Known about the structure:
The protein is mainly alpha-helical. It has one domain (about 1-65). Helices cover about 85% and strands about 0% of the residues. The chain has three helices and no strands. The chain has helices at about 1-25, 30-65, 70-75. The radius of gyration is 25 Å and the shape is elongated.
Amino acid sequence: MRSVTNFLGGFAVGALIGAGIMLLLTPYSGEELRGRVQSEAARIQSEVKQAAEDRRAELEEQLSALRQPRSADSAL
């Protein structure tokens, strides 16, 4: 258990150091970087929302097909 805790602690510290270095070395200003991050997050959110809507429509179509009574010919 202790090794898992040590690993997670090291991982968190490494992630923080990496994020700090990335922010210091980025070629964009803070305002431009925030704008890019926000627009990318909005794009990803839109894509996920569209994929969820497509999947929901597909599942509803399958559900309605399963709810239809079977004919005698299709049972064989």
